[in-house]
Amino acid sequence: MPELPEVETTRRGIAPHIGGKTVTRVLVREPRLRWPVPRRLAREITGQTITAVGRRGKYLLLATDAGSAILHLGMSGSLRVIDAATTAGKHDHVDIVFDDDRALRLTDPRRFGALLWTRRPPEQHRLLRDLGPEPLGADFSGAYLYALSRGRKVAIKNLIMNSHIVVGIGNIYANEALYMAGIHPGRASGRISKRKYELLVEVIREVLNDSIARGGTSLRDFVDSDGKPGYFSLELNVYGKGGEPCISCRTLIREIRQGQRATFYCPECQR
């Protein structure tokens, strides 16, 4: 599933090519995505100019004066900017065509993605209104996590992956950040000090920014290419390395399941 760095790289990849462009038509070949593509989408957005390409968590936002398109890439979705005359493939479900005869094409083999429309400010939409702060924004801090976690028994990994607490920290990034902060993923969130939370926020930002920076080299892939940045070539410390020696202490990395997800940690370095 595309995570926050992949979605942010997608945003940066498509923004220069569709920002300021006017929509001339919308082609919906398959409306049956995670939620049906609204029938009114073509009517609402045609003739509108894209004033901004934003992101909230893992949602991309195409803003116009009339409203905003809300895009989610689901498990396997991708976006690319192509010549509008390019023949569509089996999984190319929607084209938003612009006045320069280019199109933003949504491809989604598993159809778990979404393309919705709202006339209201997108932050008021039911999918976005209850989201927590952005992990790279000023509202996300050690003090915020510390205050919110007091008295809570939920495991710290589950806490930071809860989108109502903070958005966009996927499984890979949660594993890596907890290792870098020296925090056991199963530790009760209410039993972690403020100092540790400050460190955790610092390394979360570090691993996300590193991933986004690595994705910057693939920005060209969103134009006349496959539009799929995938997971960037992070130098992973623990994720996927169960049974291998820790790079710091040589203790074998352990793998457990938390909330249906694989968790990797060093029993010596993370307490």
Q: What is this structure's SSE topology?
A:
Blueprint (H helix, E strand, L loop, with lengths): L3 H15 L4 E6 L12 H5 L6 E5 L2 E5 L4 E5 L5 E6 L8 E7 L3 E6 L6 E5 L23 H8 L6 H5 L10 H11 L12 H22 L38 E5 L2 E5 L6
Antiparallel strand pairs: 1-6, 2-3, 3-4, 4-8, 5-7, 6-7, 9-10
Summarize the structure.
With 271 residues, the protein is α+β, with helices and mostly antiparallel strands.
Oligomeric state of the chains present here: single chain
What is the radius of gyration? 20 Å
Shape: elongated
In sequence order, what are the helices and strands, one letter per element? HEHEEEEEEEHHHHEE
Q: What's the number of helices?
A: 6
- Ranges where pLDDT stays below 50 over 5 or more residues in a row are none
Helix percentage range:
10-25%
The CATH topology name of the largest domain reads Helicase, Ruva Protein, domain 3
